[in-house]
Specification:
The protein is an alpha/beta fold. It has 3 domains: 155 residues, 3-Layer(aba) Sandwich (Rossmann fold), CATH 3.40.50; 57 residues, no CATH class; 49 residues. It has 11 helices and 14 strands. The strands form 3 sheets. The chain has a 6-stranded mixed β-sheet, with helices on both faces. It has a 4-stranded antiparallel β-sheet with strand order 2-1-4-5. A hairpin with a 2-residue loop joins strand 9 and strand 10. It starts with a helix and ends in a 5-residue tail after the last helix.
Length: 305
């Protein structure tokens, strides 16, 4: 526990805590360049990492969580060298992977107590910490139920509970809302927003709405390359006056896609609503529209439009 207390004091005194990633690269044996000289600085608060499936998000998250090695580059969290001081990172890290297994018949109290012991929380304090954490994530009334029987949202809340054990200063959450219904998603949003007031929370997702709802800073990556890093509002501002929309018949789509830079289409009342990117009004009945984060994403990563 001495090591944990030392790191906690170090970070509490560092009001400008940042995660600094410099020229991070990773190529897999099959030749896939999962990370290609990624550099960015992540401040305290909610940070969204946005990209399509296969963009390199999980590779970056696993590297930051000390679960795999990078080929080159550096990462620093305060005074900790993340790539070379894995024990130091793990003392201040909370991690919720995209999927995590549970023992079939183990209830929440037993399983969270097990995680607490792995985090080095003394047995004399463990039950109090576990009960407090289950109350924080609104699972206390279900504490004696098998975690395997939980709904998707309940299991994700349990995942956050285990990630928050030991008062982490860096929380990594990988694709947390996939498969959750809208009510569970918003409960999960509220919990993450509360946590993000005092620590670095990296939210990796391909769901634009997750970033829009939660994050004050964000990055977009695709095919291992960093395409944008900054505030969501700043990203939207770059497209002001450049996004145009029109409701069309399905038969018109092929022609529009050859004539204009179509960044997205979605069905509204059974008809495709087309957004195109252009510096000037493209005519053909298109009207200006205020850009949102979905427009930013599809304009930045056109292959997923």
């Amino acid at each position: 526990m001495d090591g944990i207390d030392t790191h906690s004091q170090l970070f509490e005194s560092d009001q400008a805590m940042e995660l600094v990633i410099s020229n991070l690269s990773k190529r897999y044996p099959n030749g896939v360049q999962a990370l290609d000289s990624v550099s960015m600085t992540i401040p305290c608060g909610m940070f969204g990492l946005l990209g399509p499936n296969g963009a390199g998000k999980s590779t970056l998250m696993r590297t930051l969580a000390t679960l795999q090695e990078a080929d080159s580059g550096s990462v620093r969290l305060g005074d900790i060298d993340v790539l070379n001081d894995k024990k130091g990172v793990r003392r201040v890290l909370g991690y919720l992977p995209q999927e995590f297994g549970v023992y079939p018949r183990t209830n929440a109290v037993e399983l969270l107590s097990h995680f607490a012991s792995l985090k080095g929380i003394p047995s004399s304090q463990r039950r109090g910490v576990v009960d407090a954490m289950l109350k924080r994530v609104n699972l206390y009334q279900h504490r004696f139920k098998a975690v395997a029987s939980y709904s998707g949202g309940m299991r994700q809340r349990f995942g956050i509970a285990q990630a928050l054990l030991g008062d982490p200063k860096l929380l990594i959450v990988d694709e947390p809302t996939a498969g959750l219904d809208p009510g569970e998603r918003y409960r999960f949003y509220n919990l993450l927003a509360e946590v993000g007031e005092s620590v670095i929370v990296i939210l990796s997702t391909h769901i634009v709405q997750d970033v829009k709802e939660l994050c004050t800073n964000m990055a977009i990556i695709d095919q291992g390359r960093l395409l944008f890093c900054g505030e969501p509002a700043a990203a939207e501002k770059r497209l002001v006056g450049k996004v145009w929309q029109k409701s069309v018949a399905k038969t018109e789509l092929p022609s529009l896609q050859t004539k204009h830079q179509v960044i997205s289409t979605k069905l509204v009342a059974g008809r495709p609503l087309v957004h195109v990117l252009a510096d000037h009004n493209p005519g053909d009945g298109f009207e200006a529209v205020e850009p949102d984060l979905e427009d930013v994403f599809f304009a930045t990563v056109p292959r997923v439009a």
